[in-house]
Amino acid sequence: MLKIDNLNVFFGGIHALKGISFDVPIGKVITLIGANGAGKSTTLRTICGLIKPREGKIKFSNNEITNIPTDKIVKKGIALIPEGRKIFPNLTVQENLTLGAFARTDKKETAKDLEWVYELFPRVKERLWQRGGTLSGGEQQMLAVARGLMSRPKLLMLDEPSLGLAPLLVKEIFDIIQKIHDDGITVLLVEQNAFAALKIADYAYVLETGKVVLQGTGEELLKDERVKKAYLGE
Fold it and tell me: What does UniProt give as the signal peptide span (predicted)?
């Protein structure tokens, strides 16, 4: 579904992504793990057109999307749930969800997806008329994911969805990611909580200073001594 080939990104004189390549097959959960500054968020932002690569190709459904505008990438079926949630705090929950479907014209299907989102996130439905900024951290994260789903993406990219959440909420967020995947959406997940991410990953890549240094199934990397030592606290 998504193919990244030799992606190089620079910020001034800093070489942030150093020729990374990986695939996201349709129907899978793919995870990128690594420390702060490894290039995980930069990878997602480059895929959705917010950062322009100096070199490399990005293909989605066999079409090259390198350097095309972000709004066109969204219309092709890619949604990014950014780190820090980035909801609209002064808009209501309902208005946030409506904006998630801004590019859609299929009103009947949009209404169906709204009901699907309500099933996934009952607490979001309970707070439709609250301003986004009045929600708790966990509720804001749920709203951010729900808003992304309203574009009905083929590929959902999540950047640190568990960041700053209590352990119980982390489990809830990962349960929801699993449900979204079960409903047929391909997932590309960036996450510092390596254990939780690898538990649900079909395949995973370890990034260090802008390079892919290790890859394997989620199960393989959970057992890998290097991963245990560096990311799992063992």
Answer: none
